[in-house]
Design goal:
Blueprint: H1 15-34, H2 39-56, H3 66-73, H4 77-86, H5 96-110, E1 124-125, H6 128-131, H7 136-143, H8 149-159, E2 162-164, E3 169-172, H9 183-206, H10 225-257, H11 278-285
Antiparallel strand pairs: 1-3, 2-3
Length: 286
Amino acid sequence: MPESGIAHALVTPPRSLTAAVKRLLRPLVKLLLHYSVQYPAFTNLLKQTYVEVATAMPVDGKPQTDSRVSLLTGIHRLDVKRLRNEIVSGNEGPPMSVSLGAHIVARWTAHAEYLDNKGRPLPLHRLASAGGMLSFESLVRSVSKDIRPRVVLDEWLRLGIAQIDNLDRVILLTDAFIPSHGLDEKLFYLGKNVHDHLDACAHNLTQPDVPPLLERSVYYDHLSKDSTLILSTYARQLSSQVMQAFSQKAMELQERDHPNADARHRVTYGLYFYQANEQEESATKS
């Protein structure tokens, strides 16, 4: 007898799907074990996520019932009811330092007045009294008047995003908001970036009648360690140029679209570089 009293269909997924899911779960499980997250805690999280996703799936424009969610997920109806009552929206937003910081860095790297003749972010005088409109203080206030620039700068210094030189200028250490320190900020971007990449893949696999989303990578093996280091440096150089160009275009369009009531869509454009020892990878899979 099925646990919810509903005859759940036993569906055998394609072997290629289970192989792909097992492979993408390996780095996730590795991360969870690093932070001492054991299997029972993960299964509880997975169960809650199944209920959240199934609840959000449309059924002829009508709200999902507990019984329908139970049928879709195979989770007992009483558990579905309990978990749906526990779902709290709005608890996955970015830390404030991420939300504000990303906007400030985007403006700094996308607006021509903040760039040198090679397109690199200029050092900015810390105070408006020294740098006027081309100061860190003015840059922060152009994005938000609710947070004091000194508070932002102190946080950036803590996260390793910026430093102050001997001329009291703020130097941006990265061309994107990627903290060197700060666990909460790093974990937020883990969830955001991997979610969007995986969702793009899922879209391409489940929506055959619409144009596929961009999802590309280049793959080479049988390289020496030295060659991977050369390619890592080259990838950073190329990605910096591409990401800055994309950011400038996106910033231009966002400022144009801001008064538009339909300006409720978001995009993510990402690049990544990965290197590993094939023998060590094979050992973990055996």
